[in-house]
Design a protein that fits this description.
The complex is a heterodimer of chains A (98) and B (368). Chain A is an alpha+beta fold and 98 residues long. Chain A has one helix and five strands; from the N terminus they run ββαβββ. Chain B is built from eleven helices and 15 strands. In chain B, a hairpin with a 2-residue loop joins strand 8 and strand 9. The chains are: A alpha+beta (98), B alpha/beta (368). At the A-B interface, helix 1 and strand 3 of A face helix 4, helix 10, strand 13 and strand 14 of B.
Chain lengths: 98, 368
């Protein structure tokens, strides 16, 4: 069934999940990062903005918090508010959910 | 784009095949048409087109490649799993990558298969798809086909089986123990015996599986299963009648805090500051206990969860399972249970165990 080898043509998949931490300032600008460069800086900035926005909106809703944990089915996102920004940790979850 | 014959189209299962390579699509379409369940096989080369096809007609199985331009397979699956939870999903890919496999299973797919390279692998692929189609034809809950929980209990007891029914309802887990056709015990959270049995049977949704029984289990239920099922059915019926009467009254949709407190005993949960239930359908009102500004908080929960859902879709992180914020004075935990979101506020800085325990108790109070 050598003919079926044409199905094996594609070997690249979506980019791997990000692992590591990064810091953003209060405007969402990326300051430092240990996340692999295969996950773009723009993507990290996008996540940083989202996290900062969550901290701000929580205050507006009178539910202020300084630590945020979001559990996605494939990734854990943990963020801590810092003076003038935030530090964000990203870690893929394994098959058993942790 | 269907090539299935006209006959018996009403009862034929439908497969949607998604791959960016038209040659591969045509080849697989031919193969899948040969299955004994004679499915209709629809094909498409783009994720966006697949989404619109799923919107317009029901499918039994989605077979999806991973590597595609624009919207890739994981992106399609993460949307599909949320929008069409009953749709069976199969990843068929040339990517032999353990992390991809894990990510795909984390999104809730049914099967992850590599594209076949020989006859044996091809037969295996076709058997797997056929098996999924057969499960679909049988209907019912995922895990156990075409049976309600009450049906299952009755069947297990009537057949004289010894088994344990494991029921999961979101975060809640219940166990019902049957020994030689006799209902001997049940357990959920911190409750056992008849009380646990009644709570479990009152759950409106859930997934069930039958597993081998614990032979040493001590008997704690001595009432017959028929009697218990009758009692529970009566209690559920009465509770629904009360809810219907409340809904029919002018302000029935929104129970007052006092009514909710009486109804659910939330006030007895230590450390609980407030609880908020936000139904998926915006036509239904939120329910709140211990909150002055429930609608403000509900809006914040909806917005925040929506933002992170979008983030999850964008970067293939999957769906949001829970969100937690810790502040100086409280912890807020947002959980998804069934189709509803729950925001649970806890005073101070509770430990991880205390948070999990409080969340479980609140969900249990509102799950029935």
């Amino acid at each position: 069934m050598g003919l079926l080898n044409i199905f094996k043509g594609q070997t690249r998949g979506p980019a791997p999940l990000p692992t590591g931490s990064f810091t953003v300032d209060s405007t969402g600008e990326l300051l430092t990062s240990t996340v692999s460069s295969s996950f773009s800086r723009e993507s990290l900035k996008y996540i940083g903005h989202m996290v900062l926005q969550s901290f701000r909106e929580a205050k507006r809703a009178e539910q202020p918090f300084a630590e945020l944990n979001v559990q996605f089915s494939a990734v854990d996102l943990k963020a801590r508010e810092l003076r003038g920004g935030a530090i964000i940790f990203l870690s893929p979850r394994n098959k058993t959910g942790r | 784009m269907s090539v299935a014959p006209e006959i018996e189209s009403a009862v034929k299962p439908k497969i949607l095949l998604l791959d960016d390579d038209p040659d591969v699509l045509n080849l697989y379409q031919e193969m899948l048409l040969s299955l004994s369940s004679m499915p209709e096989v629809h094909i498409t080369t783009s994720g966006a087109r697949a989404m619109s096809m799923l919107e317009t007609e029901p499918f039994s199985v989605l077979v999806c490649d991973l590597k595609m331009p624009k919207m890739d397979g994981l992106q399609v699956i993460s949307i599909v799993r949320r929008k069409y939870p009953q749709l069976r999903t199969v990843v068929l890919t040339g990517v032999a990558d353990e992390q991809m496999r894990t990510r795909a299973y984390a999104l809730g797919i049914d099967l992850y298969l590599e594209k076949p390279t020989n006859n044996a692998e091809l037969s295996f692929l076709l058997e797997c798809i056929e098996s999924l189609l057969n499960k679909e034809a049988a209907g019912g809950f995922r895990g156990v086909q075409s049976k309600s929980l009450v049906d299952l209990i009755q069947l297990e007891c009537l057949s004289g089986s010894s088994s344990m029914l494991k029921i999961t309802n979101g975060r809640l887990e219940g166990r019902i123990y049957i020994q030689n056709g006799e209902l001997i015990d049940a357990a959920t959270q911190e409750v056992e015996g008849e009380e646990a049995f009644k709570r479990i049977v009152a759950w409106k949704t859930g997934n069930f599986e039958i597993v081998p029984t614990d032979a040493e289990r001590e008997r704690k239920i001595f009432t017959s299963y028929q009697g218990l099922l009758l009692d529970t059915a009566q209690a559920i019926d009465e509770a629904e009648a009360v809810e219907e009467r409340a809904a029919a009254s002018e302000d029935g949709e929104k129970l007052s805090d006092t009514q909710l407190l009486k109804k659910s005993s939330l006030g007895s949960i230590p450390g609980l500051e407030y609880a908020l239930r936000i139904p998926e359908k915006s036509s239904k009102k939120t329910q709140a206990w211990g909150l002055q500004n429930a609608e403000t908080l509900a809006d914040w929960v909806r917005d925040t969860m929506s933002h992170f859902e979008k983030l999850g879709d964008k970067f293939h992180f999957g769906s949001v399972q829970q969100l937690e914020g810790k502040g100086m004075h409280r912890v807020i935990h947002i959980a998804i249970h069934g189709n509803d979101q729950f925001a649970i506020g806890m005073i101070g800085s509770p430990s991880r165990n205390d948070i999990d325990s409080t969340v479980q108790k609140v969900l249990e109070q509102w799950a029935s």
